[in-house]
Amino acid sequence: QVQLVESGGGLVQAGGSLRLSCAASGGTFINYAMGWFRQAPGKEREFVAAVTWSGGHTYYEDSVKGRFTISRDNAKNTVYLQMNSLKPEDTADYYCAAARTASYHTIVLVTTYNYWGQGTQVTVSS
Fold this sequence. Notes:
The protein is mainly β and 126 residues long.
């Protein structure tokens, strides 16, 4: 059983930056692809970014490309999401997730992921 704990959320003005962290425990971190998703009030959970087990491949939702960067430190069992040039529409609860198996096509899907964190809130003011 993998436990995921997110941190780093908060209130920031538009144009600002935040760095989210997700610490994993209870499993072999390197065995998992890792993803970040977000869910705004009244909306479905959506894919934001993902990284393969080695960190060699990353994937981004179109609206965050060039602004967000996902990375992982397998020695620290932690995945990060650096968010720059934040916009009010980035406001949401952000969730970290771990997937045992993921392909190029499925790594963006909520249903691919086996374990989820509790979420961290990000609010971007205009």
